[in-house]
Design a protein that fits this description.
Length: about 290
């Protein structure tokens, strides 16, 4: 872990990453890719200690309220958050200044901040995005070794549902010959239906591999799935997009089930929902008139 003073915190799309790097150990992590220019070990977490100060300055200067996102490149609820509480401090500022918030995580640590998320949601909108890749906790321990188990994440989704906080699930990635089974996809969809998620983000049944990420992934395959790396190399070479041989059939199941249950099922629809900022204050004023 090392502390830095960041120069800025919000992207052009109003996203932020208060940490950089990760200790989750997910074997498929795209953020490890060389294109992101990490100059330190990926597990050596960079802590943007002045993130709350920068965020408050940015929120004060904005002309229009909007949704503020966190977690696109780095989980805001890694264990280091217990010590620094930067994510919580940022959510408190978002709540204070009347913005909306959405966080993307694989950790049940998000429940620590359910009070702030509920407060934000009562005023504007708060959405928790949760990644689910496998319904099998044993497999989860292999491909996502240092995060909350799938069953624990499902329990978190249910608790968020009870508090009226909307959720979106990332069904990604689906690894060919590992979790690309109908049984797995249907089991995750059943969790999503029970938790009444608003949408499921799925770019297809597959995974993306870039330089840096690919090497880490192949080492994990050699360790946990002997012989599978050779199958990947034969079938996919150095392709960026790695699609399951069963992609079309599994996507039909996914789309049909989502549409049957009123769940947003395309990335565009889900992202539009996540970025949409509801002006509840104005709506209440007009209603009162």
């Amino acid at each position: 872990m090392h502390i830095v003073e960041a120069k800025g915190i919000l992207s052009n799309q109003n996203g932020m990453n208060v940490y950089r790097g990760c200790v989750h150990g997910c074997i498929y992590c795209d953020s490890r890719s060389e294109c992101y220019g990490f100059k330190h070990d990926f597990e050596d977490i960079e802590v943007k200690i002045n993130a709350p100060i920068l965020l408050e300055r940015a929120l004060k200067s904005k002309r229009n309220k909007c949704m503020i996102g966190s977690g696109s490149m780095c989980d805001p609820y890694m264990p280091i958050e217990d010590e620094f509480k930067i994510t919580r401090k940022c959510l408190e500022l978002i709540d204070k200044y009347g913005y909306g918030a959405t966080v993307l995580t694989k950790s049940t640590r998000v429940l620590r901040d359910i009070d702030i998320l509920e407060s934000i949601n009562n005023k504007t909108k708060a959405v928790v995005q949760m990644t689910l890749t496998t319904s099998d906790d044993s497999l989860c321990k292999i491909i996502e070794p240092n995060v909350s188990l799938t069953s624990e994440r499902f329990e978190a989704l249910m608790k968020l549902k009870e508090r009226g906080i909307p959720t979106v699930v990332w069904l990604s990635p689906i690894l060919p010959f590992i979790n690309d089974t109908e049984e797995n996809i249907r089991a995750i969809l059943d969790m999503c239906k029970t938790a009444e998620v608003k949408g499921i983000i799925c770019f297809g049944m597959g995974v993306t591999l870039r330089d840096g990420d690919r090497e880490f992934f192949y080492k994990a395959l050699d360790k946990n799935f002997p012989g599978l790396k050779g199958e990947y190399i034969r079938r996919f070479g150095n392709n960026y997009e790695i699609s399951s041989p069963d992609n079309r059939r599994l996507m039909r199941i996914f789309n049909n089930e989502c549409r049957r249950h009123g769940i947003l099922d395309t990335p565009d629809k889900c992202f539009n929902y996540l970025h949409e900022f509801p002006n509840k204050c104005e709506q209440l004023t007009l209603f009162d008139l």
